[in-house]
Amino acid sequence: MKTTAKTDDLMLIPNKNTFTLPVRVYYQDTDAGGVVYHSTYLDFMERARYEWLRELGFDIHSLIQTHKVIFMIRSLNIEYYKPALLDDLLQVAVQPEKLGRSRITLTQHVLRSGATLASATVHAVCVSADRLKLVSVPPALRHKLGKLS
Question: Is there a catalytic annotation at residue 31?
Answer without folding.
Answer: yes
